């Protein structure tokens, strides 16, 4: 059994040093990031047997994605594309404090993953997966990626896995209208939906109190669980008719990218070891807060650290 | 036409990494900075056709000043001095948080600019300038620099440019009394004065409410515009008898050096495209707040970023 | 008059530290490079009034190309493309000593320059150019780029400029056969050809002694000058029937990329100030040898340094 | 006369860059640290003639400890151990913001200092010392270290030095019970005790109001002076029956390690020049607050900076 | 089946930047290294399914060993020791050019691996291994390590694996005499011996022509294969009575550490895919030469690169 | 007794990373250097009790000179100048391979040392010095520096010290003629002269065979010892009528600056422990060759390393 299988794009992440701009920097910090592999890394860090499926160019850059994921304990099931015909998606990340903000520039056109087809992937892993996770970014990448997402959700669901989906709307990839139609179809095979409050409103046309939004979504799409995140206001879950709330743990934020994925990874890791929704929300929030103190998309944390945050809320000096 | 011509000294800026002291650092971050070229860079970044006049040693260090200014779109009109007889002014900058503070050590004696004479400079550019800007640092550098400042202000004024002047008192260069006399003479050809509240009091002997200070200065020196900056309390402008106020935009300050110059650059850039005093103060404040998030003296910003700060006040994650 | 106008693609250049691999590096050195802008920078460094024409995405990365070229004194005539629809070509450079070698990975598909059209460019600059230079890389990028290359060569030639062309065959962009046909057509408007010995053989089907190759090329395409480079064996020029030879100056090679472009830039800079072919070859070889000691594609050198190499051949300690 | 002699272990300190984890970092910042040498450095920085006694391996790493201490003006009296049989203690320091906290991993087993014996040390320096200082870390290192601590305290006391002792409980080295017994014996020759409120409670079994704790300790162990530190709540001293209080100076904390040692160093430096307890507490608190803005264990500060903090409380921009 | 299982110690490797000394450096490059894991990484890089067995402290530093090996595709079978009672061996590496040389300082006392016992390790992997590899370093670490080495060699041999052994004498760990006795016992279960010429002489008392040495060793210990390495003079193998010779491929050496392990890894990788001794020696030599161009102990190379070296001998610029 | 006292200027040394130019670098490596303190550091590293006399600005930059020298074991006798009126001399060092060479730019005008007077220095140290050393750079700095050099040489000589002098001609400070006159006067109190062959010719008008040059100098100025260095051709000494020759030890040169000072330091260190001229030349040459492998002006070496070079000539891997 694999506890968690995810599917999606992982990109090269290039960012200049603090206080330096993309227009002038002479140096990039080089990392990788992608919503679904971020979730897999958070899950694996917390003890899950996790795997990630995708398509990559057969190049040093493609191989570095696999290397880094493996280093965090994530197994990889990769379709390798000819390096001459395709590329690795890249994103440029410029951290600025306020009022400059954080600027993300995507350069992901023609990435290998846009040509992915189900038959290229080692789908057998789905048949033994406890949970299958993907996000609303993947179907927005290309027609191939959308169709493959649908196939994988369907197959995982059929094989008995819990299917989880983080809406993660990206305005640079598709319009609200495009997203809405596609997502509604995909939701048919989704058990658990993670969605930001503002995406629920903008993409799914859900207005009103957050509890109503959760009920509406659960009812209309027959979700077993709906988790709505509200930034600094914490998260709310609706599970089998019951409502659960979770505040955020305060954090000194060094790098906010990947916070949402860390939340999902923490949530799923606790669920996988049999925790209830309350405990899962706590782990999600704790993993997310730890992530904010770490450079890069990835939640390089331990179960002990997450548990300490849940118990004590902070760190101090341990010596 | 050149929108903005500035004149003054630009120095090499050397600073150790955060948390490290000048006494022990093994590394310097190398940049350039100077009040007048800082203003030119801010202006050029916001769309102005800007030029900077000065004198530099004919050495790699002198040439790097020109290179960096050109990279930001500033044209340079430089008198080149023999590298064997002169040097590039240098300043050492050690950033410390509170209570250590920020320490600036100037090493600017005998810089090439201290021997500048008007006839060495391409003064023709003044005849077609919309605005000419300099500061109270330049006349404090040397007798030659003072005389050249006077000549340039006079010529620019005679040619029809708006002349703007940032008082920028530097106690390490001259006394209040020395500054006072020199500045009063120079004010004869100045249309717009930028002055910090505390310099107005200490150097120009102006006490009382800030509005009264502004009125007093405008009346006594026949300024068209007086802009008084008050740190966190924002800026106040008196223009043709009317008072305008502008709060600061909050910022996560990484490097406060150059904030005032960014303010002036933003103000002048908006004026150059026909904006009124209110709009100019907004651009000034927004450019200044963005500058604080960027390492170095220079406001490497875009017009879009400044407009967004004016409209929204903050950044968030853009993706 | 502009001494030198070049046209072509400039890419972002990303390289890991020495001894580190693309698969594992956590840091990239960030620079720019492109054969034609490399030539313009070498020319401008040696005193030419140089300009570069191209198309770039309207993004921070596109703007950094302009910034860096401007810093080296190159004027830029850029068609700006919508940043959402296009990208900046990138190349990854991994320096390895022997036997690993240097590995270049291009990621230039869909770069903005592939959609360039003559009417987007400020072609007026061609009418006043002394020399127009481009390379065999540009027509290989796309049909648009090929057609624009042809138009620019024709227009520059018609306006009286000397047109120079560096064959620079790139096997990853087109086949020998594709290159051969296109280049023959372009040669109609070319006065000076720079070509590596091995490209003359592989692409242009020229075998035999290098002098015969030069004569054959000059005769068949009516070139005024043919310069054939032979790696460590130096260069040979055929100009108006006369043969000139130039050995290489030995260098401690830190970064070989851009050596050929530095050679062309040095050659053209000497020609522009009236030097004969012998002197131009000397400057070309000297500029190339200096380039090898400098990280990055660009020959950041001075005329004095080039002249010293020509006279003395080496550096020593100057103090 | 030597103003201040300290005795204890100094370790190599290795820390990854901010935001990076020990599990993944590719780089360590290399420094040294140890409570007693930290105190000596703070004292020497503020003008004391200070010396440090210890045992080190005769290796490059051992020598770097001496080098760095000497650079800060601390004289060293070192017993050199065979580098093949022993090692330099090391500690790994990972700074995390909240809620991750700061993680210290000690790797100090079998450090050379654990075999130290009094006769290896240049004890003559004690006979001319004004103050002798050590901490509760040293006797916890090994039986040899404990016995040597006792010998040195006794000898210094006998020679007329003021003996000062910072309790500094380290739970990874010994239990509360082990510490309690050993410390009580050592206290016999101690004049001044520095102790954190929480250690007084946990290790010395002192509960109740802080003033009572101080009185109880002073009475039971016949201390001339007891200084109790209470984190953000400042310090309290009981000296010859009188109580003195000192709030903390606020600081932008970059590196909190060494704050307590800086406090002791500042306190002792002021006492050494004849200051009263109030003035000593002020210097202690000011040195501690400055230390927090500096990377590393060491308070690289000047007397002028400490005095400015005492007078003004903050830094601003000095130029 | 696992192609290759190795057993031994992996250490943290800390090295200052080029030209900087351990006594003064402020920065360490952080990597891992150990003869047996180096071999596993080289093997995995060239396509083997490789695993490494050892014991590590349950700390961030212990986990980073696993992370890094996993990133290179090596599976790990680790006995985890309590982090409070044990440590990760460390080695300090200072690269100096001639005449300074390269200085290695080991700090490996009390490393977790010194307490390893067979029953802590997942020995089942040996029953399905094609090849089992260890070195003469491991039995020198401690009595536990020696006994475990013997047990693993015996079990692997009994299970049908080819057992390979690199003598790798380390004078800082044991004397020639100690090594000789222990190794002779271990050789009973070894099929293939790798040994440096000078170790064969000093440790195994073998003098004379290298071919004789090989024959003598093969005869006395009943080795199937003996490979003798001779630095720049290349390697010689004796296999089933036949002699094979292999020169080195020339390399620009950036980091010589790990060259021998890369040789073994390349040799074993070729043997594992059925290559004969000639081909295995070629792969060994090629992998070793590539390693020399890469910082760190590890041969981060590809099969294509190794094959290119075997075919062409060098790299050039590939673009 | 102090074994070695030196007197001269020490500057801040700023150098860009390898392959990067002063015109474009964003980073400087920060170190210190000065011929006389370089000699003191080499001497102290090899076991001498060494001191250095000079004048420095009372600033963080001045203090860092003292700190770094102290870290290498050199005691300092410094006259502190008001930081507002003076500065620390600086030199910019750009390493280039051939043919670019190494470029040194001095920025030493108005350094504190140019106002030095004997009465500011702790001259008592001269009365107990075994050797006093200075160079031909110091008298070239200013009239004050020249007069102080004369006074110190005279006093040291009178007190019985061996006085040693390295000619070290710097063309940027004075002409051959100016140097010649001044040096002849100073030679009156010099016992040992170190001089480069080419300076002996250019500055001292000595032509002919090197042995004749040595004899001529010894005779004319009554030197006890003359050491003539000839770059790669090694050194020759004439001592009490006998000639000694010493070849160079080959080195992988990373940083050639300071090689000559390391030679002098090694020579004097051997003489101080009673070695004869042959042994002193060996230590000089060995220290110089080791210095070439180390970044910075300073010979951070040990006596063991120097002895190993003398015995074996090279390094290899020590482990």
UniProtKB/TrEMBL annotation, chains A, B, C, D, E, F:
GO terms for molecular function: kinase activity. Its EC number is 2.7.1.178. It holds the Pfam family PfkB. Transmembrane segments: none annotated. InterPro entries: Carb_kinase_PfkB-like, KDG_KDGal_kin_Halo, PfkB_dom, Ribokinase-like. Keywords: Kinase, Transferase. The keyword S-adenosyl-L-methionine does not apply. It is an enzyme of class 2 (transferase). Gene3D superfamilies: 3.40.1190.20. Residues 1-296 form the Carbohydrate kinase PfkB domain. The keyword Transferase applies. Belongs to the carbohydrate kinase PfkB family. This is Bifunctional 2-dehydro-3-deoxygluconokinase/2-dehydro-3-deoxygalactonokinase. It comes from Halobaculum marinum. The gene is kdgK1.
């Amino acid at each position: 059994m694999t506890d968690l299988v995810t599917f999606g794009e992982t990109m090269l992440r290039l960012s200049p040093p603090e206080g330096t701009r993309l227009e002038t920097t002479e140096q990039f910090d080089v990392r990788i990031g992608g919503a679904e592999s971020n979730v897999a890394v958070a899950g694996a860090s917390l003890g899950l047997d996790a795997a990630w499926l995708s398509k990559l160019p057969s190049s040093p850059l493609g191989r570095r994605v696999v290397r880094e994921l493996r280093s965090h304990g994530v197994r990889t099931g990769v379709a390798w594309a000819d390096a001459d015909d395709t590329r690795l998606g890249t994103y440029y990340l410029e951290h600025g404090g306020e009022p400059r903000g954080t600027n993300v520039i995507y350069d992901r056109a023609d990435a290998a993953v846009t040509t992915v087809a189900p038959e290229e992937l080692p789908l057998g892993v789905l048949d033994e997966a406890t949970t299958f996770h993907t996000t609303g970014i993947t179907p927005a990448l290309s027609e191939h990626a959308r169709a493959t997402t649908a196939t994988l959700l369907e197959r995982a669901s059929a094989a008995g896995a819990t299917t989880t989906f983080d809406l993660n709307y990206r305005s640079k990839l598709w319009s609200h209208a495009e997203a809405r139609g596609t997502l509604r179809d995909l939701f048919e095979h989704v058990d658990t939906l993670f969605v930001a409050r503002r995406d629920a409103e903008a993409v799914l046309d859900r207005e009103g109190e957050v509890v109503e939004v959760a009920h509406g979504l659960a009812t209309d799409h027959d979700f077993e669980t709906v988790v709505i995140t509200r930034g600094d206001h914490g998260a709310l879950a609706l599970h089998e008719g019951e409502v659960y709330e979770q505040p955020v743990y305060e954090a000194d934020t060094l790098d906010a990218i990947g916070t949402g994925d860390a939340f999902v990874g923490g949530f799923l890791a606790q669920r996988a070891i049999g925790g209830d929704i309350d405990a899962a929300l706590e782990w999600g929030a704790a993993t997310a807060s730890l992530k904010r103190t770490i450079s890069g998309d990835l939640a390089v944390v331990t179960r002990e650290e997450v548990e300490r945050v849940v118990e004590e809320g902070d760190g101090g000096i341990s010596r």
